[in-house]
Specification:
It is a single chain. The chain has about 475 residues and is of the alpha/beta class. The protein has 17 helices and 14 strands. The protein folds into two domains: about 230 residues, 3-Layer(aba) Sandwich (Carbamate kinase); about 140 residues, VC0802-like. The protein has an eight-stranded mixed sheet with strand order 3-4-2-1-5-7-8-6, with helices on both faces. A six-stranded antiparallel sheet has the order 10-11-9-12-14-13. α12 runs antiparallel to α13 and α14 packs across α15.
Amino acid sequence: MTQQESVPHTVEKIGGTSMSRAHELRDSIFIGDRENGAIYGRIFVVSAFGGITDMLLEHKKSGTPGVYALFNNADNDQGWSDALNKVADAMCERHAEILDDNGDRDAADQFVRERIAGARSCLIDLQRLCSYGHFRLDQHMMTIRELLSGLGEAHSAYATVLMLQRAGVNARFVDLSGWRDEETFSLDERIRRAFEGVDLSSELPIVTGYAQCEEGLMRAFDRGYSEVTFSRIGVLTGASEAIIHKEFHLSSADPKVVGLDAVQKIGRTNYDVADQLSNMGMEAIHPKAAKHLRQAGIPLRVTNAFEPRDPGTLIDDEPAEESRVEIVTGLGVYALELFEQDMVGVKGYDTAVLDVLTRHNVRIVSKTSNANTITHYLDAPLKSVRRVERDLERLYPLAAISARNLAVVSVIGCSLAGLGVMSKGLAALEAAGIDPVSLQKTTRDVDVQFIVPRDRMDDAIRALHGALVPAEEGAHPARPKLAAA
């Protein structure tokens, strides 16, 4: 048994938007009304302050280029170098908001200067090296992406430690980013080495969400890496529970769509539902991270970071106690349809389509097929879908291939058995004047998907939520700070 496993503890993750309100977090989940030893027995894994990773890489939603994207397409040093200067300024502004002591601010400023200067030197040296024909820049871009991403988490963790130490907490900076390390370790080995000597009974570790490792977290998970780090820390240290702190409760729908008074906090669900949420882009937790926790028997709790007395929603591996609809959510998709008369009785069409989708890194939300038609519902930009269409047209010149802009509205629960979700859902959509394009249900009774026109997605969510998630007297409203995710 390791030192950490001998101390009962939790592992807890805080996202970037919440980290930008670190002062409030200090007075809620970091310290709050805890005294003495009650502050400890917890490990916090933190993301970069809100917006910093977007500036370092690219904007997650709009695609606006950050340092990484500018460097990757640079004709000269000026663009990406100026962007890196802006990152440094933004970092200093962020920690100035949470550090009240001038000495702490100076220490954080120096930390930023050293890390930014080191990253800049690496990029300049690499650019110079790759000006020779023997070296290819594209072979190093994933390493650069990881280097830049790690700057954000290291900064937020370091600044948070300074803030907590000033408040009298024995906080400890645990840097998994591999900064200036001469060796490369596996993810598990890096975590084990970083936690050697950490006493969870008297120290509060603040850990970087990014971990440099030989597997390459970003290569496998891109920006979902922090949840994988979080889950592995929980498994390797023997945590009793994993907790994700968000700015909202995990609720029955997006309150911006159905209304704040209509949504309900879920309260209790299981990992099957968490998987369905990930598939619908809701990101309660990355599927790989959920798998680690699930296999280790560690329950996951999703809480509102700014309501520390509320237990939030517990996710475990227990079967449903009763059938109920827990969440109604929607996702805009492109329906890629391949119709080929010669498909009847012939194998291989589906495999060929999947190969093309994989080559273009297009995510499949759902799919259907019959004798001569295969339809994939894709979560991807239109330009990627068009590339897939062109490849399929070359493979099957006689096929009719089309893409439609639709939405998948999914009704999800641990068990939907006996609820008549399909019939009640269709009646609710008809009453709302919505003609569904398609309807899908698996044999496991955990979700029903209604495919509707894209411009009717929100209307469909409201109709289905109203019909299938009736308001409960005395139920705790979700009261999210932002839309449920």
